[in-house]
User: What shape does this take?
Amino acid sequence: MNWPYILGYLIIQFLLGVYLTRFVKSEGDFFLAGRRIPTFAIVFSIFATWFGAETCIGSSAAVFAQGLAGSKAEPLGYGLCLFLLGILIAPKLWNEKYTTLGDFFKDRYSTSTEKIAVWILAPSSLIWAAAQIKAFGHVISSTTPLEVDVAISVATIFVILYTLMGGLLGDIVTDVIQGGILAITLLILFFFAIYSGGGVSETLLKISPEKLTFISSEESLWSRLDSWLIPIFGSLIAQELIARVLSCNGKKQAVKSSYGGMGLYLFFGSIPVVLGLIGDKFPLSFTESEEFLPTLAQTILPSWLYILFIGALISAILSTIDSILLAISALISHNFILPTFNITDPKKKLLSARIVLVVSGIIAYFIAVRGQSVYHMVEAASSFGSTGIVVITIGGLYTKTLNAKYANFCLILGLVFSVLFDYILNLNVTFSLSLILIASFYTVATFYFKFIKNPESIDPEELATS
Assistant: This one.
């Protein structure tokens, strides 16, 4: 039985969080780790935050069942997302030294834009948190005598308590230590799989051709494009990711960290995909598809390596949940509760952040229990109303023409299109169609006001550099 070792691993994680509590004295410490984290730590943190349940658990299971057509855009889609973060978002957003993404919306547009954006971003993050909690529960269930629902409950309680302790600092410290362990154990698992499967000639060179196509017979090119745009743009403007950028102590560090996280993600994110492709070479038995990777590890790894792998996998998922709950807490507490109730006392600010975090964790638990597969929940989180967020963020960073009225309209359009295209018209290209329509509206409106209605307001120097 391996569960005593897993329990011991979780206890060590919790004690680490308790220890780091001594460094969390303010809201800034809790959400941004005091903006004093070195570059290598931010790189590992970005990698570990992105490298969560959908990569290890969801994507490997989807590839095992359906081939590359089931993986959607792993790992290239999310890797491109981190590349765009470094080239488009990080250098512009860091300059203003905001605490949250909501602060940017308030500064660039208005308080109303800030509030609308918060209540679009928070539910999306809750669904994402639920997906990670569900994956955490599956890992615990596959390694202990606990049923999945009970394991999800245990996972939720542990995650809430752990995250309350160290905030972003605890998250990043865990990322550095366990992100490295996960990377190493994934490589070991990969080589063991190749060896146990009969070598490269019997595994990699004998993958069924049907598994290597990115488009299934039931899928159109446009729906495939949609599935790629969701991770690339739908995850680009996420508080979980932006928090890492804002916690950097310099603009160059923010950019380098984004690119470094991308490199790690592309390399190590490919391993679960390949393992899914060759998984049929092994006699595996599991009740739910999302138990594929833990079951594969248990089948081919020595006991002590298996324990180390599961511990690192739990840590990676924990790191992602930690980041998401912190993001939700930051948005709701910092951008809604504090200004609404005029809370200025530093201790009350920190207390508000922690209360919101607990409530968010409980809501995420109920979503996890009733939700679909991990991969579908993550996809839903990335696409829910996010098109409006993407457009007004990139547009707001690079233009100064449109005001809050148009930004708010874009946000509302994003929500309306999500419901209309997905749930009423049942289109399978909801995200891409919504993104195209809203981006077109924002671009046409900007062009009209800048070059037609108010041409005298054009700055020649700005025009020359744009």
Notes: The chain has two domains: 28-376, 385-466.
